[in-house]
Amino acid sequence: MKLIGVYETTPPATAGTDSLFSRHLFDLSRNDLHRRLVPALAETGLATFDGIPDRAAFAGLARELVALYPHPDGDPDGLTLLHAREAEGNPGTGRRGFTDSELLPHTERSCTPTPPRLLMLMCLTPADHGGRTLLTDGRAVAEDLAHTEPETWRVLSSPRTAYFGGSTGHAGTIFEPTGTDQWTIRLRLDELVRFAPRAIPHLAILRKVIDRHVTSLRLDSGQGFVLDNTRWLHGRHAFQGPRVMLRALGEPRPSLPLDRGFRVHLPDLELTTRNE
Fold it and tell me: Per residue in 189-247, pLDDT tens?
């Protein structure tokens, strides 16, 4: 890996008490990072990292792992700087991520036909108070719904039950089959989504199941993660202080051969919902 020297001169900080962070932590100084990431991302969809010294190093790591995806708010290096730069009371459509308010669980670029596969996030400056990152495994949510709330699963995995985005958005559903025995999750819960009438009664159930599987972690400076944007939901608590994050989106490089989506262990009676 081209950036080995950078990480060797900046030893990783203590990962803290977040078990999710520690459980998925990768040593970036090793030169077999790509080989080790493939099975990790294929199995769990998540990897965490530590010891990134600055924006340039994170940009280099992002370019090593993904073909960067252009974003309307992105900078010339392909990254997006996330901080409270919009008024909380009136941030504008789809702009809540640029405030200091709570950010509901979501996937990135849900309004596009094929959202970017990987999301990378790194902390430059942690908040003074609050601002913990919220992560939820969409596979756990899907399997929970399929087994405990089969009607909700059936509806929320049925075609054309949600419209994401504005006039040039995407008509789809929250849980979508990929055609290869796998599923993806696509979600946002703000003003840029409209649900079919038959789906609306099931949204409260979905939120309860998401809450059952959510994990929070506090990212310190130089810490972050890469996750499968077709599997994991992310959000945050409201915060006070100068919380500054960097985000990268993109498709995995050829050195990270990953299938799109994740397998869901469904009750036998629910297998037919994929073909409705």
Answer: 998 999 999 999 999 999 999 999 999 999 999 999 999 999 999 999 999 989 999 99
Contact 234, 227 (CB under 8 A): yes
| pTM for the model | 0.87
- DSSP, collapsed to helix, strand or coil, labels residue 157 as coil
Per-residue CA distances from 75 to 87, 191, 215 (Å): 21, 25, 30
4-275: CATH homologous superfamily? Answer: Clavaminate synthase-like (3.60.130.10)
3 state SS of 274: helix
> Please, are residues 172 and 199 in contact by the beta-carbon 8 Å criterion?
no
From first CA to last CA, the distance across the chain in angstroms is: 45
Beta strands 129-130; 193-195: pairing state: unpaired
What pLDDT is attached to residue 187?
97
Distance CA 57, CA 115 (A): 25
| Residue among 235, 224, 49, 63 nearest 134 (CA) | 235
pLDDT given at position 194: 96
Q: Three-state SS for 73? A: coil
Return d(Cα 187, Cα 184) in angstroms, integer. Answer: 10
Read off the amino acid at residue 246. Answer: L
Show the low-confidence residues of the chain (pLDDT under 50). Answer: 1-17, 269-276
Q: Name the strand (E) or helix (H) holding 63.
A: helix 55-65
